[in-house]
């Protein structure tokens, strides 16, 4: 899988071949900052997707760098990809996990002002675990909104079955 760099990232990395390794950069601080950001993006995305050596070389080859610079970037990637993935995993948000769900359907058949009113509501009690602590969230909705939510979740599950999503999820882990 090739890494698809945006035009902005390509521009940020464009100054790298002109850098003299022995002397001063002779470029503005903004150019250096953009170059560092471009390298950071290149290495981060490549590590996140666990791109192979060949795919990384092909992704960098498109940028038009010299053979020496391509080899240097490949070595930088190979030396640091595990550490980058470790840092990315540490930065990932620690989200609560599902424990259990209780639900109840309430129907209001009438009120003082309206005798023939039917107003259904669904109440959920969601139990979550987060860092060994149990949290409870109470949610309430009407059946139409619940049906829409179920349809959206089913659509998301179907999307996860596509080859593209499977590949992305496999590369994230």
UniProtKB/TrEMBL annotation:
Classification via InterPro entries: COMM, Commd2
UniProt domain COMM: residue ranges: 97-164
Sequence intervals crossing the membrane: none
PANTHER family: COMM DOMAIN CONTAINING PROTEIN 2 (PTHR15857), COMM DOMAIN-CONTAINING PROTEIN 2 (PTHR15857:SF0)
Protein's name according to its UniProt entry: COMM domain-containing protein 2 isoform X2
Organism name: Octodon degus (Degu)
Gene this chain is encoded by: Commd2
């Amino acid at each position: 899988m090739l890494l698809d760099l945006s035009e902005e990232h390509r521009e940020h990395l464009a100054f790298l071949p002109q850098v003299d390794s022995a002397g001063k950069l002779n470029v503005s601080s903004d150019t250096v900052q953009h170059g560092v950001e471009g390298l950071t993006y290149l290495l981060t995305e490549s590590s996140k997707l666990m791109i192979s050596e060949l795919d990384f070389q092909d992704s960098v080859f498109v940028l038009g760098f010299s053979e020496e610079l391509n080899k240097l970037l490949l070595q930088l990637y190979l030396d640091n990809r595990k550490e980058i993935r470790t840092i990315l995993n540490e930065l990932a948000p620690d989200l609560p996990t599902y424990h259990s769900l209780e639900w109840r359907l309430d129907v209001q058949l009438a009120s003082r002002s309206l005798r023939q009113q039917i107003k259904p509501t669904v109440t959920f009690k969601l139990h979550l675990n987060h860092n060994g602590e149990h949290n409870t969230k109470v949610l309430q909705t009407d059946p139409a909104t619940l049906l829409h939510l179920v349809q959206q979740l089913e659509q998301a599950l179907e999307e996860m079955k596509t080859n593209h999503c499977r590949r992305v999820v496999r590369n994230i882990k």
